[in-house]
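User: Thanks for the earlier help. One more: YceI family protein. Can you show the sequence and predicted structure together?

Assistant: Of course, both are below.
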Amino acid sequence: MSTKTTWVIDPAHSQIGFKVKHMMFTSISGNFTQFDGAAETESDNFDDAKFSFKAITDSITTGNKDRDNHLLSPDFFDAATFPEISFTSTGFSNVFEGEFKLTGDLTLHGISKPVELNTEFVGLAKDPWGNTKAGLSITGKFNRKDWGLNWNSPLETGGVLVGEEIKLNFELQFIKQEGISNY
């Protein structure tokens, strides 16, 4: 019988960000402000971690209310029908010291597909209140059309208004749940 440790995301010290090309040459950044997630490990170095995560779709913000409302509409996320975005890991393998490949199923817009994310374990420390914290930086990319996010508008000069590739950038701080064991 093995003892597993649960870690939960500290939302006050974490960011779930993304970028997408606008008009083929600049990137628009955004993030989700409501999210939660957990990791389950057998060691504090996260070598064997299993992750789960969800974001509330209508917590998206890009700094422009009209754009945010369009992203929440049926043209993109259709937040009324699909209120959550989720991820469940299927693998976490060490590539190099502190660098990992995180694989799992991303469910977005009612479609689940596998994704691979680059993950850096950036540290472990105690905060001033005695909590053990772990930091992870996660990056990756995917084609939004693979999840049915197809809306676009052609440009007079050629190309399209919104890029297909979504770049992810997560900065996550986890809090170790002392004394909690699932097994």
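User: Great, one quick takeaway?

Assistant: Residues 5-176 form a domain with the Lipocalin fold (CATH 2.40.128.110).
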